[in-house]
Structure formats: structure tokens, C-alpha cells
């Protein structure tokens, strides 16, 4: 199990690097679009850089953490801990 966690950590670091690269590329594309639409101002540039980069970082980062949780075995630990309590039977709805 420890080997799975170590490989999951390495994969998370690799995904984080790719997320940062994609975020920078998306910021460059957004700034190019702002320049092409002639809406170039200091406030627009700052808002675009912060908004686009952190949105990409947050969205992709949460997905990466979900994959990390699954691959590292944390999800299996939680489901195993929850299986020790007795199950409540479901009502048959007809």
C-alpha cells in the first residue's frame, strides 16, 4: 500500500506541474484575446491574469486531488472503515 501512495504522490506532483503550465498557456491565450479585442488596460490585464490562472488552478487542482485520493488508497480506507457498521435495510418503494 505504501508503494501505491508514493507513486500517487509522484503522479500528483507531475499533474501539478502540467496544471501550472496549462494555466500559464490559458493566461497567454486570454491576454492575446484581450489585446485582439482592443480592451487592453492595466486593470483588465491584472484581472485576467488572476482570474484565469486561479480558476484553472482551482478547477484542475480539485480534479487532481480527487484522482490522488483514489490512487493513493485513501478512498479504500474510508470505504473499509464505513463497512464495519450494520447496514440499514432500504424500504422497497413500489
Which tags fit this structure?
94 residues; mainly alpha
Description of the structure:
By secondary structure, the chain is mainly α. It has one domain (2-73). 80% of the residues lie in helices and 0% in strands. The chain has 3 helices and no strands. The protein has helices at 2-36, 42-72, 74-82. Helix 1 runs antiparallel to helix 2 (42-72).
- Helicity range of the residues? over 70%
Oligomer classification:
single chain
Number of self-contained structural domains: 1
The class by helix and strand makeup works out as mainly alpha
Sheet with most strands: none
Number of helices, counting only DSSP H or I runs of 4 residues or more: 3
Low-confidence stretches: none
Radius of gyration: 21 Å
Task: Briefly characterize the structure.
The protein has 94 residues and is an all-alpha fold. The chain has helices spanning 2-36, 42-72, 74-82.
Blueprint of the fold:
Layout: H1 2-36, H2 42-72, H3 74-82
Helix pairs in contact: 1-2
Amino acid at each position: 500500500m505504501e508503494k501505491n501512495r508514493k507513486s500517487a504522490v509522484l503522479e500528483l506532483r507531475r499533474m501539478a506541474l502540467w496544471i501550472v503550465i496549462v494555466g500559464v498557456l490559458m493566461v497567454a491565450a486570454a491576454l492575446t484575446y484581450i489585446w485582439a479585442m482592443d480592451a487592453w488596460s492595466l486593470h483588465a490585464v491584472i484581472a485576467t491574469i488572476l482570474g484565469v490562472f486561479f480558476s484553472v488552478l482551482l478547477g484542475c487542482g480539485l480534479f487532481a486531488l480527487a484522482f490522488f485520493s483514489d490512487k493513493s488508497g485513501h478512498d479504500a480506507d474510508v470505504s473499509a472503515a464505513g463497512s464495519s457498521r450494520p447496514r440499514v435495510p432500504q424500504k422497497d418503494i413500489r
